Amino acid sequence: MTLSIQSIELRDFRSYGRLCLEGIGPLTVLVGPNAVGKTNIVEGIQLLTALTSFRHPTIEQMVRRGAERAFLGAHVSDGNRELDVELRMEGHAKRYALNGKAKRTADLKGLVPSVTFTPDDLDLVKGSHGTRRKALDALGSQLNANYYLILKDYEKVLQYKNRLLKEEASDVMIDSIDEMLVTVGAQLACYRASLFERLVPQVARRYGEIAGRGEALACAYRPCWEAGAPAASESAADAAPALAPLTRDAAREALEAALAGRRAEERARRRAVVGPQGDAIAFAIDGMDATLYGSQGQQRSVVLAWKLAEAAVIEEMLDQKPVLLLDDVMSELDEARRAALVSYISDDVQTFITTANLAYFDQAMLSAARVIQLPLAE
Ligand SMILES: Nc1ncnc2c1ncn2[C@@H]1O[C@H](COP(=O)(O)OP(=O)(O)OP(=O)(O)O)[C@@H](O)[C@H]1O
Question: Which is the closest atom of ligand 1 to the Cα of 64?
Answer without folding.
Answer: 3
